[in-house]
Design goal:
By secondary structure, the chain is α+β, with helices and mostly antiparallel strands. Helices cover 39% and strands 15% of the residues. The protein contains 3 helices and 4 strands. A 4-stranded antiparallel beta sheet has the order 1-2-3-4. The C terminus is likely disordered.
Length: 127
């Protein structure tokens, strides 16, 4: 049987572990916010891509992998700093309001995809 002393010790360890976990996520959140404020340009390796959804400009939708659950999908060209300002881009699509499938080996990916609007319309006509 577990003694009161063992229980008290386990509760102390649990609190210490929760404090470490809280501090880890707090520091990660602050580091991400600082990154967004100072240099919001990301590489492909730092982004998670949608399986099929494209921005109206033709690039895939993406989000930074280190972001918070309250973040959003955005045009990968904007996140990579290569967006053409003369074409339409999607607005920021918060995770909480939009259900967009992320890339996986079963869903596919829009990583590296660029299909301008004219090409997409032509593909649809051919099918």
């Amino acid at each position: 049987m577990i003694t009161k002393e063992q229980y008290t010790q386990a509760c102390g360890q649990k609190k210490a572990a929760q404090d470490v976990i809280y501090t880890y996520f707090k520091e990660a959140r602050e580091a991400f916010r600082q990154r967004m404020a100072e240099n919001p340009i990301f590489t492909d390796d730092e982004l998670g891509y949608s399986a099929r959804q494209l921005c109206p400009c033709g690039h895939g939708l993406a989000y930074p992998k280190d972001c918070e659950p309250r973040h959003y999908w955005d045009c990968s060209a904007i996140l990579k700093g290569i967006a053409d300002k003369n074409v339409e881009h999607t607005g920021q699509l918060p995770f909480a309001f939009y259900s967009i499938k992320g890339e996986s080996e079963h869903n596919g990916t829009t990583r590296g995809v660029f299909k301008p609007r004219g090409e997409r319309q032509q593909i649809l006509k051919e099918e």
